[in-house]
Amino acid sequence: MTFASLGLIDSLLRTLGELGYASPTPVQAQAIPAVLEGRDLMAAAQTGTGKTAGFALPLLQRLVMEGTQVAPNSVRALVLVPTRELADQVHESFKAYAGALPVRTLVAYGGVSINPQMMRMRKGVDLIVATPGRLLDLHRQNAVRFNQLQVLVLDEADRMLDLGFSRELDQIFAVLPKQRQTLLFSATFSEPIRAMAAKMLRDPLSIEVAPRNTAAKTVRQSIVTVDKKRKTELFLHLLKQRQWGQVLVFAKTRRGVDELAVALEKRGVPVDSIHGDKPQPARMRALDRFKAGEVQVLVATDVAARGLDIDDLPLVVNLDLPIVAEDYVHRIGRTGRAGASGEALSLVCADEAPLLAAIETLTRQTLARSEEPGFVAEHRVPMTNAKGELVKKPKKPKKPKVHAAVVKEDVRFRKP
Ligand code: AMP
User: How much is the CA Rg of the chain, to the nearest whole Å?
Assistant: First the structure.
């Protein structure tokens, strides 16, 4: 199959040739003709599948072919994404695919001054890539009007809901024209996403390129059990002993990120970090430095888990397991991309057994376990079985409640 057979115009085909895209990925093969036809789309596709080009290429073609003049402060296509990093990345993809096409674009997210974004909106733009909060700010200040809007793309819709954007999304949906094309991309299809799809989409084409909720097959996954308080020490030990190269590490909290980053810095390991408390330019700089190979270890919270496209990343380490099992799939999806092999290693302590069980249920596998000599856990991590269930120890029989009557009395006389 070729891109030409999907109906793309010559200028886009030339650009794809220059980018070295020889043939469409499965999601592109299905999405491109459907989007060109004007159909709604509901696509289950993870990052790494080429989904961005799957919607960006046909969208650009439609914008150019229709050639409508955009009015001041208006927009013809809107791409909503959950994070600033993803907004930048998707916008960069649009710019790369657009090449010399006459398309005005804007990327808009919070954490940076709104003024340049408002200035750019004055002449109107063909396409905005935005996070929901900043888009609403722009709309409230009359900098963005939606009466010319033809296409809405929801990218990583599940992540937007996870991050608590559902109210913002509803407010945005309420001000968009009803007559439009809507494309919904989501790595997972939970009930809330299905409900959103049912409300937003008209006779959508459903595309599923990776089986639901399965982790990338090319990623070797395993866990090392360890006591909670020794995780940082174990990480430092493994980094040295296994001679790791570049590694992306996920920690649960901002504090956890900072602690590991400081410990690495003290040992002279080139490190940077990304979390929600850091200003946007610092987050972008950290990512750029990591991509450029200037830092060996990038420590991040789940802000960085989705959508980021980092080439040839060999290893992802979970210093803590994520609270939401789906985030595990996204975290490890940062490695083993585009068919390359990768490794994902999780340091798991006893408290995390239920999270481990949830991940194993979701990904339908039991993760291989090992212990590192010198770091054997005092608090044993309960076994989880092949069905991803937590194998509980048989419960001790309960002692009879001798104080039952007293407790009842207490309740009766408690003040309301
Ligand atoms: P995405 O899933 O959209 O984040 O894309 C993942 C990576 O695959 C990006 O680096 C794209 O540049 C690359 N890519 C997308 N489509 C193709 C293609 N047809 N051939 C080669 N690389 C591609």
Answer: 24
